[in-house]
Design goal:
Oligomer: heterodimer
Order of helices and strands of chain A: HHHHHHHHHHHHHEEHH
Helix content of chain A: over 70%
Mean pLDDT of chain B: 88
Distance between the termini of chain A: 40 Å
CATH architecture of the largest domain in chain A: Orthogonal Bundle
Radius of gyration of chain A: 24 Å
CATH superfamily of the largest domain in chain A: MetI-like
Largest interface: A-B, 26 and 31 residues
Structural class of chain A: mainly alpha
Largest sheet of chain B: 6 strands, mixed
CATH topology of the largest domain in chain A: MetI-like fold
Strand content of chain A: under 5%
Number of helices of chain A: 15
Bound molecules: adenosine-5'-triphosphate, magnesium ion
Low-confidence stretches of chain A: 272-281
Chain lengths: ~280, ~350
């Protein structure tokens, strides 16, 4: 009896975990399966959606890579994403630190004010920002997105990082300063390693934002060469009222899987409780 | 001149005068305890010495250099924080080596110094662990070792024992004193615990409300308090203060004894003591009562268990204090004053 109960309990745990895994992995599974389906298979409601009722095909991938500028879109998205992440970190990290540590009680209020900016939706801003982009002569260029995306990512990231910096005891920095470092070095040696989770969260947030943002990308860019994934793929694979579903799904999953893998590599570092044991008991 | 000189040091936080004019000179190799109640400005004073707080006014000199405006790293000090402030993302080894890294010490020297500091504190076997895998006492040692490797001119300790349990605190105190004596590091130790202060300090600076009230060796502070604050802050129970003939009369509970046991041939002053309550603490008996014929007259007597006089609550007895043990204070200012010429007791 006693031996069975814990085992049942374990089995229960695994069952729940397995169910969740399936739930979260199902979209990927469906995307992968459908990527290789022929139209005849996909469009018959009687068919089992999880298996190939008609032999699989590579035609959809061929259409994606040869019939559209897919690789160009990926390159543009990556370019914009990496640059925007860098700009966001370079601006938001010092801003958040200054607000968390040095600005006194005004820091908190300023942080909230900055966060409020994030809440203004792009659908309100894209027309005025279009004027700004034109003024800079960046129409039709990926640089317009590099310029505009930080307006969304910096406020949110600053606010998020402020929380991380605040949770790090001041004593640690001061100890580093007493131990012989300047404030700047103390920041890099002690505060940054302890806020790594925050920096990673900001990176993930910002990169994801640049990948899926639609309104600005749609408005500012009209040539296929400069389009990022989020607009390029739907524009070129929805022709009139024909949806090339399999190629659309393929376009999504090819990007989603590597991004998912990279995010997962950092999962450990996102684990909370990293600062435990810094101070007393 | 001392290794550390504080001159007219003041610090205001808006309205709050956290430190309000402190002058103090600390000699080489000395352990000075800064003792005072919570909120009296001890930590603030210490932070100004460390360079973490800029004084509103006054100067800090360390080793004959005016360091008032210098950042902590230029001051040749080490500090143990009340929270220990160990770096949670580094191993114990890296924690201890951190000040050496700041100095860009070569690898071998680093390893050797860390080994040396860890050896003194008996934590060699913990070097590979992270701070969160340590007990409170071990953390305290790591923090001390980190201060030690710097071989600083002055070591600043802010209530380093307050997070330890009572038993550990006693042994940690003992070790701390041992190694401070052996290494001869000039040390400033902040505490609000008078027993810690009496046990550890070569000298004690008693602070209250941002001011140093008295500086002296423990015996001096205990026997000859400079004012009523010091008199009542030290000692447990604190010094009795009676108001009589326009001044305050102070004496320690342990020198207030029944007339028949009061020692031999020294001149005594007798008081009629109305006993209200007896507390038996095992090693001592505390007698709470009032002295008749005085205005502020709540008085405590502390009888060691070796005194076997039997006393009953509610009765009045003759108690005596040696005249030499009486201290006089000014009624208004609370400051110590000379005994008045021949005044009956
Ligand atoms: N950064 C600050 N801003 C405003 N007031 C402060 C600041 N730091 C300290 N104070 C005030 O200064 C006074 C002295 O504080 P301090 O921390 O020096 O006391 P302490 O003697 O170390 O007390 P404790 O024994 O509780 O640690 C307190 O009244 C405190 O509220
Ligand atoms: Mg304090």
């Amino acid at each position: 009896m006693q031996a069975i109960m814990p085992r049942l309990k374990r089995a229960g745990h695994y069952l729940i975990v397995a169910a969740f895994c399936f739930f979260t992995a199902a979209p990927f599974l469906i995307m992968i399966v459908n990527t290789f389906k022929q139209d005849a298979d996909l469009y018959r409601p009687q068919n089992n959606p999880f298996i190939y009722n008609v032999p699989p095909t590579l035609d959809n991938l061929r259409l994606l890579f040869e019939g559209t500028n897919y690789l160009g879109f990926v390159r543009n998205s990556l370019f914009v994403g990496v640059l925007v992440v860098l700009i966001t970190l370079v601006v938001a990290v010092p801003a958040a630190y200054a607000l968390a540590r040095l600005a006194g009680s005004w820091g908190e209020r300023a942080g909230i004010a900055i966060f409020l900016v994030y809440l203004v939706p792009p659908t309100l801003l894209f027309i005025p920002l279009f004027r700004v982009v034109t003024a800079f002569g960046l129409n039709d260029s990926v640089w317009s997105l590099v310029l505009v995306y930080p307006t969304i990512s910096i406020p949110f990231s600053t606010w998020l990082l402020m929380g991380f910096f605040k949770s790090i005891p001041r004593d640690l920095e001061e100890a580093a300063m007493v131990d012989g470092f300047s404030r700047l070095m103390a920041f890099f040696k002690v505060v940054m390693p302890l806020s790594l989770s925050g920096v990673i969260a900001v990176t993930v947030f910002t990169f994801t934002l640049t990948l899926h943002e639609f309104v600005y990308a749609m408005t500012f860019i009209s040539s296929s060469d400069s389009r990022p994934l989020s607009v390029g793929v739907p524009i070129e694979l929805v022709r009139g009222d024909v949806f090339y579903w399999q190629s659309l799904l393929a376009a999504a999953v090819i990007v989603a899987i590597p991004v998912g893998i990279v995010y997962n590599m950092f999962l450990d570092r996102l684990v909370a409780g990293f600062t435990m044991g810094a101070v007393k008991g | 001149m001392g290794v550390v000189e504080l001159r007219g040091l003041r610090k205001e936080f808006g309205e709050v005068k956290a430190v309000n004019g402190v002058d103090l000179s600390i000699q080489k190799g000395e352990l000075v305890v800064i003792l005072g109640p919570s909120g009296c400005g001890k930590t603030t004073l210490m932070r100004m010495v460390a360079g973490l707080e800029l004084p509103t006014d006054g100067e800090v000199l360390i080793g004959d250099r005016n360091v008032t405006a210098l950042p902590p790293r230029a001051r040749d000090i080490a500090m143990v924080f009340q929270s220990y402030a160990l770096y949670p993302h580094m191993t114990v080894f890296d924690n201890i080596a951190f000040p050496l890294k700041a100095r860009k010490a070569p690898k071998e020297e680093m390893a050797q110094k860390v080994e040396w500091a860890a050896g003194i504190l008996g934590i060699q076997r913990l070097l590979a662990r992270k701070p969160r895998q340590l007990s409170g006492g071990e953390r305290q040692r790591v923090a001390l070792a980190r201060a030690l490797v710097k071989e600083p001119a002055v070591m600043l300790l802010d209530e380093p024992l307050s997070n330890l349990d009572a038993k550990l605190r006693v042994s940690a105190r003992d070790e701390l004193q041992q190694f401070q004596r052996n290494l001869g590091i000039t040390t400033i130790f902040v505490t609000h615990d008078q027993i810690e202060a009496m046990g550890l300090g070569d000298r004690i600076a008693v602070m209250n409300a941002g001011k140093v009230r008295q500086v002296g060796d423990p015996q001096e502070i205990y026997d000859d308090p400079a004012d009523t604050f010091v008199a009542t802050f030290l000692g447990s129970p604190p010094m009795n203060l009676l108001e009589r003939n326009g001044h305050l009369l102070g004496f320690r509970p342990e020198s207030f004894l029944p007339l028949e046991v009061a020692r031999g041939d020294r001149e005594k002053v007798t008081f009629p003591f109305h006993l209200g309550r007896v507390e038996n603490l095992g090693s001592d008996r505390l007698l709470y009562g009032t002295v008749e014929g005085a205005e502020r007259n709540r008085t405590i007597s502390k009888l060691p268990s070796t005194v076997e006089v039997s006393v009953e609550a509610g009765e009045t007895y003759d108690f005596a204090v040696c005249r030499a043990d009486l201290r006089y204070f000014d009624k208004e200012s609370g400051l110590r004053k000379e005994p008045p010429p021949r005044e009956g007791g």
